[in-house]
Amino acid sequence: MRILIYGGSFNPPHLGHVRSVRTAVAALQPDKTLLIPAAIPPHKHLAAETPAQEERLCMTGLAAGEIPGCEASDIELAREGTSYTSDTLRVLRERYPGAELIFLMGTDMLLSIETWHEPEVIMALAGLAVFAREEGREAEIAAQADRLRRTYGARVYVLEGEPVPVSSTDVRALLPRRQGRELLPDGVYAHIIRRRLYGARPDLAWLREEAFSYLKPTRVEHVRGTEAMARRLARRWGAEESDAAEAAILHDVTKKYDRDGQLRICEKYGIIPDKWEKANPELLHAKTGAAFAADRFGAPVAIADAIRFHTTGRPAMTVLEQIVFLADAIEANRRPYPALEAIRQAAFADLDAAVELCARRTVAYVTERGLPLHPDTARTQAYYLKKLEDRGAAPIPWDGL
Ligand code: ATP
């Protein structure tokens, strides 16, 4: 039996790791491959933004899931103190007597192995497989492999394949800038976004793809239009444009669900529908959308609240909430309705006046159709009317439906 072992911080595991393991598995045909995240790596300090151990184990498991016969092991996380590879190999030797152990590593690790704790024990218990992290190190690797063979009797396998020159450090720096997605296995990226590890913010192209998969095809154009309008408004009013885009992309994410679907999502997230939502379950998609966006895509409170209040509004909205509330109502694909042009113009001239008119129009529309008016909309209209009065500004004239 041959066991391939890959140790690291996996903070997070990236495509360089996956490429290495795939190459090693193809070349060495192990019966089993173990990815082992270190509890306390001997060679490096874990970065300040390192998530809990269970998160690294979970992400390592997701990366392992991409490779047949590969699994994540908590053997080092479960052990106290510094995670020495020699100790891990001793445990594996006992656990799998007679098995051939091969320890996989990148260029940096092969070149530094003699500085590790008990290097001679490591090389006695396991063969070494090395996969280059970058081009142009072949001679260095070959020379070191030769030296280790001569000095320690090491069995060294030099693997060939195109390197993926990336490090977890690079990835951690990119994630808060909505970048780095292409450097990670899909499942790992989705997990990082869902849990907002490393201060990650979603790549918006990725988010669109994900969010649109929950929409009826006919709704996609509306969501695209809402994003475009939210971006314009964010630029006009000095809000974070990509946050406005994120909220807009997600604002209707649960819209396609009917009454029963909405109620099921409510139950899942502990949302208790009020009497207006019970009478008109259409309203629920804002609350269920916010909860879903927070759970599935890790939307932070400011973005989740912009989704939560995009239909009814609420008094004293943040600028982001006002932007999403308006963008939904006035995006370019909206079928014309009375007051649309007036709200569109106001949205770029006076945000409060635009919100007031938009809420006033909703009150008129809902009342005319005999639907129960959600009090949040009435309160929103009253709040912004008073705000305008306090500012000495007149509400926008509109003579109703
Ligand atoms: P960090 O940037 O946090 O130091 P890292 O990207 O070097 O992390 P580790 O999890 O510490 O990743 O590395 C685990 C093992 O994977 C080491 O043997 C390392 O040499 C190897 N490795 C890391 N990145 C690559 C890569 N891009 N290609 C090949 N091997 C890699």
Question: Any chance you could write out the topology, listing elements then pairs?
Answer:
Layout: E1 2-8, H1 15-28, E2 32-37, H2 53-64, E3 70-72, H3 85-95, E4 100-106, H4 107-112, H5 119-125, E5 127-131, H6 138-152, E6 156-158, H7 168-174, H8 186-195, H9 204-212, H10 220-237, H11 241-250, H12 259-269, H13 275-279, H14 284-297, H15 301-308, H16 319-330, H17 340-349, H18 351-368, H19 375-391
Parallel strand pairs: 1-2, 1-4, 2-3, 4-5, 5-6
Helix pairs in contact: 2-8, 3-5, 8-14, 9-11, 10-11, 10-16, 11-15, 11-16, 12-14, 14-15, 15-16, 16-17, 16-18, 17-18, 18-19
Explain how this protein is built.
The chain has 401 residues and is α/β, with parallel strands linked by helices. It folds into two domains: 2-186, HUPs (Rossmann fold); 204-390, Hypothetical protein af1432 (Orthogonal Bundle), CATH 1.10.3210. The protein has 19 helices and six strands. Strands 3-2-1-4-5-6 form a six-stranded parallel beta sheet, sandwiched between helices. Bound molecules: adenosine-5'-triphosphate (ATP). Adenosine-5'-triphosphate (ATP) binds next to α1, β4, α4 and α7.
